[in-house]
Specification:
Shape: globular
Number of helices: 8
Helix content: 40-55%
Number of strands: 7
Number of domains: 1
CATH topology: Rossmann fold
CATH architecture: 3-Layer(aba) Sandwich
Oligomer: single chain
Largest sheet: 7 strands, mixed
Distance between the termini: 69 Å
């Protein structure tokens, strides 16, 4: 019978103490980096970005349904794209995001790099009126947050490329809205292949349309 001496025991305890806690690893490190990035920039997301509460709703939608093929129309400087890509890091997905303004897009690229999510994001510079209809798809999640009076046209362009069970979320659409908001809601609710509800939880309501 072999004898394990006190020095061996002490060395073993030292090695155990140096191990990461159970559950720690690259995924947790990535989450910590993204959360730190968002916390650091909290309150600075202006210039057509969504509020954090709305970013959380987008994250929850993607994770809850396991979406993997996402399209964002209107990147701005990357706040919503960060939330979307973070969710896609959980599902194994990727994001295509479109922005017409070169300065905002450049800032978004820097933000995606800083958050550690740039590898999941295909950022495209150009006019969404032209680029979105040319995208092949398929998609299972689309976030529309560009020129509001073009929402119906964006819906028409992406709906045929949306997978069954997929979702189109449109920002700043509420039940009380008028003008383009009312036109958009009336339009999507008249589509036989979709069910649409308005999620009022965020700072700016979201119209969420699921493809049957």
């Amino acid at each position: 019978m072999s004898f394990i001496g006190p020095k061996t025991i002490a060395l073993g305890l030292l090695l155990l103490a140096s191990l990461p806690p159970i559950g720690a690893g690259p995924a947790q490190d990535a989450d910590a980096r993204i959360r730190a990035f968002l916390d650091e920039h909290q309150g600075r997301w202006r210039d057509l970005n969504v509020p954090a509460a709305d970013g959380q709703i987008l994250y929850d939608l993607i994770v809850a349904h396991g979406y993997k093929r996402a399209l964002e129309i209107g990147t701005s400087t990357g706040h919503s794209g960060t939330w979307i890509a973070w969710a896609l890091s959980k599902t194994g997905g990727r994001l295509i995001t479109v922005e017409i303004d070169a300065e905002r897009r450049d800032q978004a690229l820097r933000n995606f790099q800083a958050s550690g999510l740039s590898g999941l994001i295909d950022s495209r510079l150009g006019d969404a009126h032209i680029l979105v209809p040319r995208l092949d798809g398929p998609f299972d999640f689309v976030f529309s947050d560009a020129d509001k009076d073009w929402y119906i046209e964006y819906f028409k362009a992406v709906a045929p490329k949306l997978a069954s069970g997929g979702c189109i979320a449109a920002h700043n659409v509420s039940e009380r809205g008028r003008g383009w908001t009312r036109e958009y809601l009336d339009f999507v609710r008249a589509q036989p292949g979709f069910t649409t509800t308005v999620d009022p939880r965020g700072s700016a309501s979201l119209a969420v349309s699921f493809k049957k």
